[in-house]
Amino acid sequence: MAKMGRPKIEKPKANKISIRFTDEEYEELKKRADQSGQTITEIIRQGVKIAIGAKA
After folding, report:
1. Chain-centre distance of CA 48, in angstroms?
2. Confidence at residue 56, expressed as pLDDT on a 0 to 100 scale
3. Which of 14, 25, 44, 54 measures 20 to 30 Å from 2, CA to CA?
4. Are 28 and 36 within 8 A, CB to CB?
5. Alpha-carbon gap, residue 55 to 19, rounded angstroms
6. Are 33 and 43 in contact (CB under 8 A)?
7. 8 Å CB contact between 33 and 39
8. What local confidence, expressed as pLDDT, does residue 31 receive?
9. Alpha-helix runs per DSSP H in 1-56
10. Largest CA-CA distance found in the chain, in angstroms, rounded
11. Radius of gyration, alpha carbons of the chain
12. What's the rounded Cα separation, in Å, for the pair 29 and 23?
């Protein structure tokens, strides 16, 4: 019988970080995400990559 369920992914995102933003910071992030067609999460990940010197 074939396996059921979703296929496993190569690099699962198992680590979670909670960040608090002011209303102004959140609105800036949301505005940037809307303008670029990305999600807020994608914008934050890009920023983290830049901060650690990884290829964005």
Report:
1. 9
2. 62
3. 14
4. no
5. 23
6. yes
7. yes
8. 97
9. 23-36, 40-52
10. 54
11. 16
12. 10
